[in-house]
DNA sequence: ATAGGGTTAG
C-alpha cells in the first residue's frame, strides 16, 4: 500500500529562481517578487511548509482564485503547468480543493499521472473532491488497480464517499474487471444510502455486466425505480457485448415504448446489435431512425452504421454512408475496408486502401490487418510484396496479429518460402499459437502435409498448446496430402489428449479426408456418429467426395439434406449436377438447372487471374474481352497440338453439358485457367514461374494439361484454386493427382 | 466545482 502522507521529495528540486523566473508562459501581469520565493528556497514545497511560513500570504494576495482557475483551464505543456503548480504552492492556494482538483486533472491530461498524484498528496486533505478527482484520473487512464486502492484508502481514512465517488470506482471495477471488489463497493453504496442514485445505479448495472454477471445487472436494472436513457443504454449494451443481439433489440424496443428516445450513444450500440443479427431490414430501419434524428453528423454513429450494413452483407449501402460522411476518421476507413473484406470484395478493399493512402488518414495496424487479409484472399503476390514493404517502411508498430496475417498472406499468394522465412525469424523472436496455425495451414494448402505434421510436433516441443484452429489446419493438411492415418490420429488426440471437443468444422475436414480417399461409407458413418448435429458444410464435404468418386446414391443422400438446410447455396446444386453429369444423367442435370433458375440461383462464373509485372489480367471462360484474345487462342491451339504429341488426351468428361464430343474438346480449350496460363506462357519471361489464381476448383482436364505444359515449356506453373495450390513442374503436380 | 452508457480487427 502506498503512503498517502505528503511526499518527502518535492516535485521541483529548486522551487525558487529557476522555475519561477523563467516563467515565459505566465502572463506578464503576474507579479512575483524574487525575495518572496527565495524565502522558501530550502523548504520542500508542501502544504505544511507554506502554512507555517508567513511569506506565502503576500503572494496569495496577488495571485487570486479566478486567475488560477483560468490559468488551469487553458491548455498547457508540462513546463508552464509546473510553474503554475509552484505558484499555487507558494501562494498556499493549493489548499483550495477546486484548484487542487483542476491541477490534478491538468497533469493527467498531459499524461503525467505521477504529478497528479504528487498534487493529491500535497493536498492531503479530507475533502472528497480531491479524492474523487484522483480516482477519476486513475479510472480514465485505465489504472483500475490504483483507483480501487485509492478507494480503500479513502474508506480506511474515514473520508466519506459520495454519489460522485462510486461511479468512478465502479467504472474501474468494470474496466479490469473485478467483480468481488465491485460487490463490496455495492455493499458500501447500500450502507451509505446511495443505492437509488441514477448515476450510481447505472454504474452498478454496467459494472456487473462488464464483469460478465449480466443477470445480476439485469436484476438491479429491473429493480430501478427510475431509469433514464443512460441506464437503458447500459443494459442494452450489456446484451450487445455478450453477443445476444435479440435481447438487446428487445430491450431497445421496450425502452422506446416507455417513451425514451435513443441518442447517439444508444444508436451506436443498437447498430452493433443489428450488425450481429445481420438483418438488412432492421438495419435499414435503424438507419432511417438515425437519419431522422440527424445523428449521422456524428462520425462514431456513421462508423457504426457502416459496419452494421457491412455485417448485414449490404456493402453498397455501407459505401453510400461512407461517401456521404462529412468527416471520416481512421475507424471510418477501417470499417469500410473490413466491410469489403468480410464480404469477399477484396479488390474493392484494396482500391479503397489506395484512396486512403492518397487522401485519408494514416493507416494503422488494424487497417493493414484488413488489407493484408484482403490481399491474401485475392492472391496477388505482387500486391503482397508491396503491402509488406509498406508495413516495413511505415514504421508502424507491428503486432503479432498483423505479423501472422502477413505470413498468411504470403502463403496464400503462393510464396510459402517467404512465409517460412518470416516464421523462423519470428516477431522480435516471438511467435504465438496463431503463428504456428498459419504455417501449418500454409503447408497444408500447398499439399505439404508431412511438413505440417512436423510443425505440429515442433510446436508441442516448444510448449505451445494447440487450439481448435490448429486442428482445423492440421486436419485439412492431412486431407490435402492424403495422410489418412495421421489425420485420424490427430482427430482422436484432439479430444483425448488436448481436451478440445471436435467442432463441426473439424468433422468437415475429416469427412473431406475420408471422402477424398474414397472411404465414403466411413465418412457417412462418421457423420451419423456426430454428437453435434451435422451442418451443411459436413454434408457438402460428403457430396464433394461423391463427385470425385462418382457415387450418385450417396450424393443424392447428402444433396437432399443440403437442399433442405441451405436451399439458397448455389454451390451444392452445382456439385450435385456434376455428380449427375459424370454418370450422364442429363435429364437430372437439367432438372437441377431448372430448380436453380426458379430459385434465382446462378452458378458463379469461372474466373482466373494472372499477374504479369504490375498488370493484372483476368479471364472468364471463352473470354473475348482481352485485347490479345485472338493471339491467346492461337497459342492454346498450338500448345494443345504439342501436348497431344506428348500423349495428352482431352478429358471430355469434364464438360458438363450434353454436346458433341468435338465441341467438348473446344470448350475445354477455352477454360479460364487455360487462357490465363497460355497468356502467361506468352508474356512471362522464360524460366520464370507462371502463377494463376482461379475462383473455383481447377478442372480435371486443365490439371492434366498443365502437367504436360510444365514439361513442354520447361517452367513451373502454380495454380491456386478455391481449395488449394497446385505446383506443376516437370510433368507432375505437387498434389500427386490427389485433390 | 466532480458522475453513469460508445464504433473498427484473427
Automatic annotation (TrEMBL):
Domain of life of the native organism: Eukaryota
Start and end residues of each stretch annotated as Disordered: 31-55
Family matches, as InterPro entries: DYW_dom (IPR032867), E_motif (IPR046848), PPR_At4g14850-like_plant (IPR046960), PPR_rpt (IPR002885), TPR-like_helical_dom_sf (IPR011990)
Statement: the UniProt record of this protein carries the keyword Repeat: yes
One GO MF term attached to the UniProt entry: RNA binding
PROSITE patterns (alphabetical): PPR
Extent of Low complexity compositional bias: 43-52
GO biological process per UniProt: RNA modification
PPR repeat spans: 127-161, 228-262, 329-363, 432-466
Ranges where the DYW domain occurs: 647-739
UniProt keywords, alphabetically: Repeat
Name the record gives this protein: DYW domain-containing protein
Organism placement in taxonomy: Eukaryota, Viridiplantae, Streptophyta, Embryophyta, Tracheophyta
Amino acid at each position: 500500500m502506498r503512503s498517502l502522507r505528503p511526499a518527502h521529495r518535492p516535485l521541483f528540486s529548486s522551487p525558487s529562481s529557476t522555475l519561477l523566473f523563467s516563467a515565459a508562459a505566465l502572463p506578464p501581469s503576474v507579479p512575483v517578487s524574487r525575495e518572496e520565493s527565495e524565502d522558501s528556497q530550502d523548504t520542500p514545497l508542501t502544504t505544511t511548509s507554506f502554512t507555517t511560513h508567513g511569506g506565502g500570504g503576500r503572494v496569495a494576495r496577488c495571485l487570486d482564485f479566478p486567475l488560477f482557475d483560468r490559468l488551469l483551464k487553458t491548455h498547457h505543456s508540462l513546463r508552464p503547468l509546473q510553474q503554475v503548480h509552484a505558484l499555487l504552492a507558494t501562494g498556499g492556494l493549493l489548499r483550495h480543493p477546486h484548484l487542487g482538483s483542476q491541477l490534478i486533472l491538468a497533469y493527467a491530461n498531459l499524461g503525467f499521472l505521477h504529478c497528479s498524484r504528487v498534487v493529491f498528496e500535497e493536498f492531503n486533505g479530507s475533502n472528497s473532491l480531491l479524492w474523487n478527482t484522483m480516482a477519476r484520473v486513475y479510472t480514465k487512464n485505465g489504472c483500475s488497480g490504483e483507483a480501487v486502492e485509492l478507494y480503500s484508502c479513502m474508506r480506511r481514512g474515514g473520508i466519506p464517499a459520495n454519489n460522485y465517488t462510486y461511479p468512478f470506482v465502479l467504472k474501474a471495477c468494470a474496466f479490469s474487471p473485478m467483480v468481488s471488489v465491485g460487490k463490496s463497493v455495492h455493499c458500501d453504496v447500500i450502507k451509505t444510502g446511495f443505492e437509488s442514485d441514477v448515476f450510481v445505479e447505472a454504474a452498478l448495472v454496467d459494472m456487473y455486466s462488464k464483469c460478465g454477471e449480466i443477470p445480476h445487472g439485469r436484476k438491479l436494472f429491473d429493480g430501478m425505480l427510475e431509469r433514464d436513457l443512460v441506464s437503458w443504454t447500459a443494459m442494452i449494451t450489456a446484451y450487445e457485448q455478450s453477443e445476444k443481439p435479440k435481447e438487446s433489440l428487445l430491450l431497445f424496443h421496450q425502452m422506446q415504448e416507455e417513451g425514451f428516445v435513443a441518442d447517439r450513444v444508444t444508436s451506436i450500440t443498437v447498430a452493433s446489435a443489428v450488425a450481429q443479427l445481420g438483418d438488412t431490414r432492421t438495419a435499414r430501419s435503424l438507419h432511417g431512425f438515425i437519419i431522422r434524428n440527424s445523428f449521422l453528423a456524428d462520425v462514431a454513429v456513421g462508423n457504426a452504421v457502416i459496419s452494421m450494413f457491412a455485417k448485414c452483407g449490404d456493402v453498397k449501402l455501407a459505401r453510400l454512408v461512407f461517401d456521404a460522411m462529412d468527416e471520416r476518421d481512421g475507424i471510418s476507413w477501417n470499417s469500410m475496408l473490413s466491410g469489403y473484406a468480410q464480404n469477399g470484395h477484396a479488390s474493392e478493399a484494396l482500391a479503397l486502401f489506395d484512396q486512403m493512402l492518397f487522401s485519408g488518414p494514416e493507416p494503422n495496424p488494424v487497417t493493414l490487418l484488413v488489407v493484408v487479409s484482403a490481399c491474401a484472399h485475392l492472391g496477388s503476390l505482387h500486391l503482397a510484396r508491396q503491402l509488406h514493404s509498406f508495413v516495413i517502411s511505415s514504421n508502424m508498430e507491428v503486432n503479432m496479429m498483423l505479423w501472422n496475417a502477413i505470413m498468411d498472406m504470403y502463403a496464400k499468394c503462393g510464396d510459402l518460402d517467404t512465409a517460412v522465412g518470416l516464421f523462423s525469424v519470428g516477431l522480435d523472436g516471438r511467435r504465438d499459437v496463431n503463428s504456428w496455425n498459419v504455417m501449418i495451414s500454409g503447408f497444408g494448402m500447398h499439399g505439404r502435409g508431412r511438413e505440417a505434421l512436423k510443425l505440429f510436433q515442433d510446436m508441442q516441443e516448444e510448449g505451445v498448446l494447440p487450439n481448435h484452429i490448429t486442428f482445423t489446419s492440421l486436419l485439412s493438411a492431412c486431407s490435402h496430402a492424403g495422410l489418412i492415418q495421421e489425420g485420424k490420429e490427430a482427430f482422436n488426440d484432439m479430444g483425448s489428449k488436448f481436451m478440445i471437443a471436435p467442432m463441426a468444422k473439424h468433422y468437415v475436414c475429416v469427412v473431406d479426408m475420408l471422402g477424398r480417399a474414397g472411404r465414403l461409407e466411413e465418412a457417412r458413418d462418421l457423420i451419423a456418429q456426430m454428437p453435434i448435429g451435422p451442418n451443411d458444410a459436413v454434408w457438402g464435404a460428403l457430396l464433394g467426395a461423391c463427385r470425385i468418386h462418382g457415387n450418385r446414391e450417396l450424393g443424392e443422400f447428402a444433396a437432399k439434406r443440403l437442399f433442405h438446410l441451405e436451399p439458397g447455396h448455389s454451390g451444392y446444386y452445382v456439385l450435385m449436377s456434376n455428380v449427375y453429369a459424370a454418370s450422364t444423367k442429363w435429364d437430372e442435370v437439367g432438372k437441377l438447372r431448372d430448380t436453380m433458375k426458379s430459385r434465382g440461383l446462378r452458378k458463379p462464373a469461372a474466373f482466373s487471374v494472372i499477374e504479369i509485372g504490375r498488370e493484372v489480367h483476368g479471364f472468364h471462360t471463352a473470354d473475348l474481352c482481352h485485347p490479345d484474345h485472338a493471339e491467346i487462342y492461337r497459342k492454346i491451339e498450338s500448345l494443345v497440338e504439342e501436348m497431344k504429341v506428348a500423349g495428352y488426351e482431352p478429358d471430355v468428361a469434364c464438360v458438363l453439358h450434353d454436346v458433341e464430343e468435338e465441341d467438348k474438346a473446344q470448350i475445354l480449350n477455352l477454360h479460364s485457367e487455360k487462357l490465363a496460363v497460355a497468356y502467361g506462357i506468352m508474356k512471362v519471361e522464360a524460366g520464370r514461374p507462371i502463377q494463376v489464381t482461379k475462383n473455383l476448383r481447377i478442372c480435371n482436364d486443365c490439371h492434366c494439361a498443365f502437367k504436360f505444359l510444365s514439361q513442354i515449356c520447361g517452367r513451373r506453373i502454380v495454380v491456386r484454386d478455391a481449395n488449394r495450390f497446385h505446383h506443376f513442374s516437370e510433368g507432375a503436380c505437387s498434389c500427386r493427382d490427389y485433390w
